[in-house]
Each structure stands twice: as structure tokens, then as C-alpha cells.
Design goal:
- The strands form three sheets. The chain has a two-stranded antiparallel sheet with strand order 1-2. It has a two-stranded antiparallel sheet with strand order 3-6.
- The chain is built from 17 helices and six strands.
- It is mainly alpha-helical.
- The chain has helices at 2-18, 65-72, 75-82, 86-100, 110-136, 146-154, 158-163, 165-178, 188-195, 204-215, 225-229, 238-252, 262-269, 273-288, 298-303, 305-308, 312-329, and strands at residues 57-58, 61-62, 107-108, 223-224, 259-260, 296-297.
- Residues 31-54 are annotated as: Disordered.
- GO terms for molecular function: calcium ion binding.
- Interacts with PCSK6 (immature form including the propeptide); probably involved in the maturation and the secretion of PCSK6.
- Its main location: endoplasmic reticulum.
């Protein structure tokens, strides 16, 4: 018992040293904002692009980083807000609210919040893409060639290149489709189309073509259930099979004809930012609309600033949770 108490004492001392003092604008940041989010255009197991809010709730826990990025439209700004004193965080949030408030009535309606969140999704993608372009642009000319992308993504080991042959082939097709003026380079906008084809409508024909090449084994231009599950089924049990069949029948096959046509394939592949934004609006309203009038006053949002943008107080709350977990273990 004495050993556990000593361990707890040492933990609290170390924790106290890491907490911000009054007036200190730097705090120990233990959030998980991710730079260079290649995960955003990673595929789920069935081949669809992972939705932007995939990590909003994970293993039963709510991750507020998504909320902060959905309001600020920038991973870097979200990290900066996590280091701000509460009053400064609220001051800056107040400035943002005047920009969100399209009709200048001092309230944020659902449509205003949704429009802002959709704008944030776009700027997040641009930020992610620009960071990746900077990494790949070895000669720093503000644009990238296929060779620069190949080197940055896969390296130059012949064995690695051989192992990733299919991925490289698909990436090369994506590069060529993104290269709008066919000059062999991707500028900032073209590179965004390359890194986020699922958010770029002109890239959808390529996504459809690649999905059919990957799954349409009988070449009829459709994807039936057997083609949908493909080789994945070999290592799965009956419960998994039934779950996938329900998903195919009730989520993807919208007209119920037993196969996915072009529109249904794209609906399955491409996450709907509209739906994600609607869900985020509902989430923020549930936690902030204190008088239940279906609109958010500036005061309501500022009172719940930690849900929207975070501050040093958010980090402090995380530290307290760490203490609670430690006590539970004791």
C-alpha cells in the first residue's frame, strides 16, 4: 500500500510540474491532433474512403479534437487554441462567431453552423494537402512531379516498389487524373485533387473505374454481393458475413436490385461531408443549446467554448482524468 501511495505522490508531483501556471500561455498538450493526415483518404476494409469523422468516437470515447478542427478548419490552429488561456480562447472564438453569423442576429442557426463546418472541412483538406506537398516537393518549386511523389511515398527500394505495385499503379492513375493541364506537374489545387479525390467531383469517374477494376470480376459494370465481399470473406465467420449482407442490402443497394450501379458505388466509396456536418451540428447543439430554442446564442457557445475550440482548461481536464484513472487502478 505504501508503495502505491508513493507512486501516486510522485505522479501528482510530476503532473503539477506539467500544468500551466496563471498567465502562462504554454501548456502540456496531450491531445492527438494529427499532422499530414494521410489517414483521411485511407480506405476502410471494404474499400470505401474513411469518413472524416472516423475518429470522433473510438472505443466508446469521445475525441473532442474533431470538434475543434471542425470549427477552426486547421489542425495547427486547433493545437494553438489548446495552449491559450481561457479568456483569450473565448475572445478569439467571439471573433469567429461574428463570421459564422451570416444574418448578424447574434445567434448561430443550424444552417450557419453547418455552412461553417463544411467550409472548415475544405480548409482542413487544403492544409493537409499543402503539408504533404511541402514534404514531397524536393526542389521547392511549389509543384510536384510523379517522381517526387513516388520517392516521398514509396522510397526507392526496388523490393518495396515491387510489393506495392498495385498501389503505385492506382496512385499513378490518380496523379494523371489530378493533373488537369497535363503538364506533368501538380500545383497546389491539382495536388489537393490527388490527395483528396473523394472530395473532388472531377475525380469520381476515376474512383468508379478503379472500384470496378478491383471488384467487378464478371465485367458487367455492376458489383454484386459476392464481388463486394471478395476475398475478405475467406477469413471471416458467419456473423461477419451476415453483417456485411445487411450493410450491402440496406445501406449500399438503395434500389434493392441486388447489385450496385455507378451511383450506388460512388455513394458507398465517397463519404458524405454533408451528412458528417449534419451529425456534427447535432452533436454541438445537444451539448450547448441550454435553453433548447434550436439556435445557439453567442453566450451559449462561449459558455461551452471548450466543446468548440478548447483552451488550457481542456488540457487541465485531461490531466484530471489521468488522476482519476490512476486512482481507479489503485
Amino acid at each position: 500500500m505504501a508503495g502505491r501511495l508513493l507512486a501516486l505522490l510522485l505522479f501528482v508531483v510530476a503532473l503539477a510540474a506539467s500544468l500551466p501556471t496563471l498567465g502562462d500561455t504554454a501548456s502540456a498538450h496531450i491531445h492527438t491532433h494529427q499532422h499530414n493526415k494521410a489517414d483521411n483518404n485511407e480506405r476502410t476494409e471494404d474499400g470505401a474512403f474513411s469518413p472524416r469523422d472516423a475518429d470522433h468516437y473510438a472505443e466508446g470515447e469521445h475525441h473532442e479534437e474533431f470538434d475543434h478542427e471542425a470549427i477552426l478548419g486547421s489542425v495547427k490552429e486547433a493545437e494553438e487554441f489548446d495552449r491559450l488561456p481561457i479568456q483569450e480562447s473565448k475572445r478569439r472564438l467571439g471573433i469567429l462567431l461574428t463570421k459564422m453569423d451570416l444574418n448578424n442576429d447574434k445567434y448561430i442557426e443550424r444552417n450557419e453552423l453547418k455552412a461553417w463546418i463544411l467550409r472548415s472541412f475544405s480548409t482542413l483538406s487544403a492544409e493537409e494537402s499543402e503539408d504533404r506537398l511541402d514534404d514531397a516537393d524536393t526542389n521547392e518549386d511549389g509543384k510536384v512531379t510523379w517522381e517526387e511523389i513516388l520517392q516521398d511515398t514509396y522510397g526507392n527500394d526496388p523490393e518495396d516498389l515491387a510489393l506495392d505495385d498495385k498501389l503505385i499503379q492506382d496512385d499513378k492513375q490518380t496523379f494523371e487524373a489530378a493533373d488537369l493541364n497535363k503538364d506533368g506537374y501538380l500545383d497546389t489545387e491539382e495536388f489537393k485533387a490527388y490527395t483528396h479525390p473523394e472530395e473532388t467531383p472531377r475525380m469520381f469517374p476515376l474512383l468508379l473505374k478503379q472500384a470496378l477494376a478491383d471488384k467487378d470480376t464478371d465485367g458487367d459494370g455492376y458489383i454484386n454481393f459476392q464481388e463486394f465481399i471478395g476475398d475478405r470473406a475467406k477469413s471471416k465467420d458467419k456473423e461477419w458475413l451476415l453483417t456485411e449482407k445487411d450493410k450491402f442490402d440496406y445501406e449500399h443497394d438503395k434500389d434493392g436490385d441486388g447489385r450496385l450501379d455507378s451511383d450506388e458505388i460512388l455513394s458507398w466509396l465517397v463519404p458524405s461531408n454533408e451528412e458528417i456536418a449534419n451529425d456534427e451540428v447535432d452533436h454541438l447543439f445537444v451539448g450547448s443549446d441550454d435553453d433548447h430554442d434550436n439556435r445557439l446564442s453567442f453566450d451559449e457557445i462561449l459558455d461551452h467554448h471548450d466543446a468548440f475550440v478548447g483552451s488550457e482548461a481542456t488540457d487541465y481536464g485531461d490531466h484530471l482524468q489521468e488522476i482519476d484513472r490512476f486512482n481507479d487502478e489503485l
